[in-house]
Amino acid sequence: MRETDILVLGSGSAGLFFALQIAKRTKLKILIITKKERSESNTNYAQGGIASVMNSLDSYDAHIQDTLIAGAGLCHEDAVRILVEEGPLRIQDLMDLGAQFTRDKSGKLHLGKEGGHSAHRIVHTRDLTGKEIERSLLSAVAEHPQITMLEDHYAVELLTDHQRIDHQRRANEPISCYGAYILDEKKGRVEVVRARKGVMLATGGAGQVYLHTTNPLIATGDGIAMGYRAGAVIANLEFIQFHPTSLYSEGAKSFLISEAVRGAGGILRNQAGERFMTEYDPERLELAPRDIVARAIDAELKRRGEQYVLLAISHLSAAKIKKEFPNIYEKCKQFGIDITKDPIPVVPAAHYSCGGVVTDLHGRTNVKNLYACGEVTMTGVHGANRLASNSLLESLVFSFRAANDLIDSLKKNPKEDEKIKLVEWDESGTENAEEWVVIEHDRREVQQLMWDYVGIVRSTYRLKRSERRLKLISEEIEAYYRKTRVTVPLLELRNITLVALLIVRSALKRKESRGLHYMTDYPEPKPAMAKKDTILQKKI
Q: Looking at residue 174, what is its pLDDT?
């Protein structure tokens, strides 16, 4: 057994910022577990920026209203207010850690504007904001003696009362979390990691549930799946944000074309050269919220039988394009597209999960000692549709609040270091996996099912059809998991399939169209559901 004070699962902005706040104000030892390289996270791939009120021409109320409008009546206003009002402080924290954001000639922050925003408030580092944030956080973590990070380690399962040998949980007693089973990929061994003071779940999103996604390969919904299996409450998973514009090109792996391109004046046209957003949102056009733009593109593709639409930005000067979008320019150039002259072929792709593990305003879950932050959570900030560039802000604001809460709770009620006996990982009777083709086939089938039936436009018939198939696949995988020595591909497949099933079940519960969830059976929003979250919880 390995022991630590605080266990952090995930090395994106939420997990790193949380760890730094704990280390800054306590003497606690913190262990960060990351499944691949430390910089591999959704944070690192975020291009656009962080939305925050950073000048006198903007206001908290305006940012709050923009967020509530985008959220289609389902945002928790108290969470939104906290996000907006505490956001500028957290951005200052990043700058104090060394994050370098783009500035104008006078030295002030250059603030961009993106879809759904009524003001210029996007703090960014050209089109590589996430990479810069991750760099500054990782640099600070590397220098801190209280923080240890283990790469190529995979969280298999949260450790709760069910894995505790010396304690019998009473019927109405809340579930407690004591750590996690962790797979050391290089050694092929699972060990118990015990967290004496608390566990932070910051594992990111679930984009790999879909065939086309802007997310990296690591975004397999691990935290949502582990949280659900441990008894954590899950909510609003039906709200999957499809980014309207990912690069459509063979081998591009759904490379994101940032919202900021449209913010800078990019125009969407079908392959006949027609600007079609005039028909779908004549007032906001290309700067309408993402759900509207994604559905508009989807409708155009289906109407015309085409595979992609075109995003043109060539009316701007070549120098301006290369300066503001150097990463996008270079990436497109690799595929023979010169964005200073040519339109960019784009298609929607799964981008962000607005639902997840339910937390309160301090990052606490319903499982004792288990906190959660970032995309793995449902804080209530995003409602039925995330406003562009609010996600990085959410990670910072609520991980900071979670760190404060944990520190305060330990001051009020110091935890004695209990000698807890936990069940060791037992792989006796298991076999080495030989049928790799089974894992790869099931993963592709799940992703294709979700893309075809649980995408931008849904129906009850499609959802029920996908539920039946996913339930069968899930049962097959669970049986395979129990008789086979665990590997990362198998664990990821298990999590992807469970999260896919949870998304479908959440979608079936919401019998209306709202935000990112569009049902052909129920094309209109229902007032009665405007403040109703869809809740899922495993009976423990």
A: 87
